Amino acid sequence: MGKKDGKELKRKIMLIFSTVPAKESAAIARDLVDRNLAACVNIVPVRSLYRWKGEVCDEEEHLLIIKTRKKRVPEVMAEIRLMHPYEVPEIIALPVSAGHLPYIQWVYDETRVKSA
After folding, report:
1. What is the pTM of this model?
2. Going from the N-terminus, what domains does the chain have, and what CATH number goes with each?
3. Contact yes or no for 20/62 (Cβ under 8 A)
């Protein structure tokens, strides 16, 4: 794969961040990977401070770092919304601008749509 192809491939990969209750994180991550919506999901313990409905909240949560194809982002977001217990879940998608090309290729390959 040439440099141009590598640059093109990197533009097709996204990271999605979503904070979830710790008890829900493994189920959501497993679902995304099992359905080929994500190649990999890192589950990271975090402490979140935020304002919700006028109150300051301080919660222990898990941050999901989800690696997927750009074209699968809408499906990933829909699945998170379906499984997520929060009224307004955090779901933020960011493009990958650089990365180790064999890893980028692996993410791309693992998130292909499976034929029925």
Report:
1. 0.90
2. 3-110 (3.30.70.120)
3. yes
